[in-house]
Amino acid sequence: MSALEGLVRDASSLGVPLTGEDAARLLALCADLAEWNQRVNLTAITEPAAMITHHLLDSLAVHADLAGERIADVGTGAGFPGLPLALVNRQRQFTLIDSTAKKLRFVEHAVQRLGLTNVTWVHARTEQLAVPPFDTIVARAFAPLPVLLERVTGLSNQATQVLAMKGKWPAQELAAVRRGWRLASSRRLVIPGLDAERCVLALRRDIM
After folding, report:
1. Within its chain, how far is the Cα of 91 from the centroid?
2. Nearest-10 crossing angle of helices 20-37, 101-114
3. How confident is the model over 149-156, as a mean pLDDT?
4. CATH code of residue 58
5. Structural element, H or E, at residue 136
6. Which domain holds residue 43?
7. Which residues of 58-130 form beta strands (DSSP E)?
8. Which is nearest to 175 in space by CA: 197, 198, 206, 144?
9. Where does the pLDDT of residue 17 fall: very low under 50, low under 70, confident under 90, or very high at 90 and above?
10. How many domains does the chain have?
11. pLDDT tens for each residue of 130-146
């Protein structure tokens, strides 16, 4: 089975229908990431198969959890999970936020490479932004839950859901979450080819 066929199959197991054309775009994204990584340190994951599991499939795993039209990816790094999610959610608008300029230069390149018209990128620290609240905020390996929620306060309101992508169940982080936020839902993520624990937590502001 080719890498393209495997990606289409594995994405389907996550509930994400990928066309062959879009799968080819995502594989090209990984190839570009590997090439850029030789000049600019963007990711510690360099093996092609690992890029597919750790970047593409891991990102697509929260596709079903998105809500609303305006999505923010905070601490996007080289564009994950924002870029793969934007590719399969063309009807939604994605804002990819990071404080590291060199990573956003790759994001800019990737947006053009993928032909995405529903993505903007912002070079800023998340807590310093003042923008209208997003419908969904996604964070992968960004910060412990209490820090994450503090930093996205200015990007959210009571209707916003914050999707925190985690490895093992973060019991200590949850226990440290300050009043004003609540765990609305959670689920275990099973990533094809990835032998590691994954989960996603949806948090919302308490109704005062």
Report:
1. 17
2. 150
3. 95
4. 3.40.50.150
5. strand 136-140
6. 3-205
7. 70-74, 93-98, 119-123
8. 144
9. very high
10. 1
11. 899 999 999 998 999 99
